[in-house]
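Sample intake — Ferritin-like domain-containing protein
Collected from: Christiangramia sediminicola
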Amino acid sequence: MSIIKLLDDFSSEKLTTKSSSRREMFNTLGSFGKKAAAAAVPFGLATNSASASTMFFDHEGPLGLALVLEYLEAEFYMKALESGVLAPDSRAEKVYMQISKHEDAHVAFLMEALGDDAPAKPTFDFTAGGAFDPFNEGGIGQETAYAQLLALAQAFEDTGVRAYKGQAPNLMGTPYLEPALQIHSVEARHASEIRRIRGLKGWITGSMRGDGMPEATQAVYDGEENVTQGGVNLVTDLTYADEIVGDLTAAVTQAFDEPITGETAQAIAGLFIVSDE
């Protein structure tokens, strides 16, 4: 069953009700459901039929994945700026303008690095089959569209941060590890900036998505609750733990970002890629 069919049971009634409060609208976004996440359509990163599990041998696989994610982000920010949803001269518009330039630079670098092996740009559907209207093309209303625009940006950036980290080991011994890490740190800055515009902290706490994030984006945050690094449980195994004021577990999860696999990154991005099926 395609992602489009599975999204048919998502009701947008509350999203189009003008009287809905921002919190009510956030809660409606959160009802998107796990079925949509499970229905993500994996996308190809090469022209052959190799499976995702066999593609990540050298730099072409990791950089191909990165390029598709950068394609997605670059087009998203471009359309956001063209949509009129962002208030002119607002902080959000200025941030989106700058991030858009960064994403365009990332795309240019990765296309040059991959050359003839660069995957073609997919066709993106930022409504995820009608579940969202971030550019207010369907008349959902400026306030609701704006909230969706920020929530989707956060999900895309948080995905990028974890995906670059997950592919770093596959770039060991290639000349592309350093530039990939350079992009990774900038993606993290993007994520933090978007979170702060949304009124959130700049870091991820546990596996919590944050206020107003669709449940379908849970895969972006799964695993972030980890408190063991290098074989050391930083909550129970350190002598200074008793001296920490406040929630130590939350602080430890904030202190370390976790990687995600290429397959997970594909599934998340696949929600916004038009399937040929």
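Post-analysis note: The chain has one domain: 3-203+259-270.
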